[in-house]
Amino acid sequence: MKKKTAIRLFSFMAAVIFALGGVVIKQMSRSKKYELKIENEYSKSLSELTSRVDNIGFLLDKIIYVTGSPKLSTLSAELYSEAELAKNAVMSLPVSYENGGYDTVNRFLSQVGNYALSVSKNVITGEQITDKQEQNLILLDKTAKAISQSLGDSQSSYNNLEHWAKIIEDKFEENSEEGSLADALYELEENLTDYPTLIYDGPYSDHILTKEPLMTSAAPVVDKNKAKQTAVAFSLDNALEFKANQGGKIECYRFSSNTTEIAVTKNGGYVLYMRKISNNRENKISYDTAVSKAKRFLNDRGYSNMTPTYYYTDEGVCTINFAYLDGQTLCYTDLIKVGIDASNGDVVMFESGGYLSNHTPRAFETPLYTSEEATSVLNEKLTTVSTAIALIPTSGAGEVRCYEFTCKTESGTDIIIYVNTQTLITEEIFVLVKTDGGTLVK
Predict the structure, then answer these.
(1) Which helix (H) or strand (E) segment is 2 a member of?
(2) Among 152, 159, 261, 366, which residue's Cβ finds the most Cβ atoms within 10 Å?
(3) Which DSSP category does 347 fall into?
């Protein structure tokens, strides 16, 4: 090789190496910025969860010793609000879904506010707090303090970048870092042996949470390979690998990649949930566009006749609740949630627990009363905006068919009233809350 040619070749190779080095450095810089962003978000969520659980403990202390129904009602409402905020915070943390997704902690947050409201309702109607109710409140207080202690013990180690980088690295791994929040909550699950079984008039009573899922209970078992094929086809992620068997009410195979986590039921081979990592936090697409993309996603995967109901947008993700439309009856029991990245329209979340638990062929009775007759039970100060027929869940783990009246109050507040088609009994009333993030019911 001539000397001049060798010099040129060496110079070219040096330039390529230098360029590749620049790319690597740039990618490392982006990765570090991403880690810092995730660190801040997780730290904020953990701090929020710790604060809310602390407040739950303080409020339970007050409720146990309060006298008088008005104050009990106020404290119970505050407790319910704190529990809902705590649930939102724990959903944002990198907690493993293995072992059923920490059912006890999630069940506690779902039940504590509703139980207090149930006790308050009894007191308002003239009843006294029973010894059993008082014992349950004391056990709930004990549970709140145990969770608070566990979170406090683990929070200090979450204030450094190295720890968060490890959490991010292990987020989709079967075995997370020892001492992580996942480990702390799992250990807490094992120790909460005194947690009370609550049977009461509320939407999160134990006899509802333990309902046998209709679509999976009698379905044939699929093997791991078949489940993986379903997971890949559903998520369009060819890098998925099996990670663990997931227990809980609906047993699943869990698969993951660097960007995706998905669970497929062992019975029936249905997708229970899917989550994808998204860096975007900007709202660039409209709600109508998000709904269109979510509906196309569901249709392509065999979920037809799904109707969008309520939605909210948070941290750049628009979460849309879809209910199954059975003829003219909107089945709120058969619920699927789809999360759309509001910056580009990608599907980043899917949850079908409500649908798998409740969806089944139904034969509806002919209503004994017309919708016009049902309006007779509405307050005369309300203005009816629209009328529909809906199937809603009952506190007894059943379902009831109702006329759904969307109304406006004299002050302009939107409310929805559900009147039983067979009895004209008012089964449920909700207030529609419209915010910048979307429309929710309370």
Answers:
(1) none
(2) 261
(3) E
Alpha helix positions (H), 171-311: 181-191, 206-209, 224-235, 287-300
CB of 112 closer than 8 Å to CB of 144: yes
C-alpha–C-alpha distance, residues 403 and 417, integer Å: 8
**CB contact at 8 A, 102 and 248:** no
Q: Which two tokens stand for residue 122?
A: 């009894």
> Beta partners for 415?
407, 431
Provide the angle, in degrees to the nearest 10, between the axes of the packed helices 3-65 and 161-170. 100
The span from the CA of 428 to the CA of 275, in Å, is 32
Half-sphere exposure for 327 (CA within 13 Å, toward CB): 11
- CB within 8 A of 144, min separation 6: which ones? 53, 56, 57, 60, 108, 112
State the DSSP string of 259-277. SEEEEEETBT--EEEEEE-
Measured between alpha carbons, how far is residue 247 from residues 97, 104, 203, 395 in Å? 9, 13, 23, 25
Q: Please say whether the beta carbons of 396 and 416 come within 8 A.
A: no
Q: Tokens standing for 58?
A: 């303080």
Mark residue 327 as left, alpha or beta (left: phi above 0; alpha: psi -120 to 50; beta: remaining): left
Specify the amino acid at residue 1: M
What is the percent of the chain with per-residue pLDDT over 90, rounded to a whole number?
33
* Rounded Cα gap, residues 231 and 263, in angstroms: 7
Tokens standing for residue 90: 């724990």
Strand partners, 431: 415
CA distance 76 to 262: 36
* Global pTM value: 0.61
Residues near 116 by beta carbon (within 8 Å), at least 6 away in sequence: 60, 63, 75, 76, 79, 80, 137
Which of 14-23, 35-44, 207-216, 228-237 has the lowest average pLDDT? 14-23
